Amino acid sequence: MSPNLILAGCVLGGSVPAWAGMPLTESTFTEVIHEANVVTATNKAGSPARAQEVFRTPDLVRTGRDSRVELTAKDHTITRVGANTTFTFAAGGRDIELKQGGVLFHAPAGVGGGAIKYRGSSAAVVGTTELAEVLTDGQFKVIDLEGSVKVVLQNGLTVTLKPGQLVVVSANGNAMGAVMNFNLGLLASRLLGVVGFAHRLSSAPLIEAAIRMQNQQIAAGELPDLVSLEVAGFGLDTTTRPGHGTVLTNGSNLPNSADPSADESFPLDFPGEGAVGPLGYPFLSRDPVISVPPVIRPPAVTEPTRKGP
Question: What does each C-alpha distance from 187 to 67, 132, 153, 178, 181 come to in angstroms?
Answer without folding.
Answer: 19, 14, 26, 19, 11
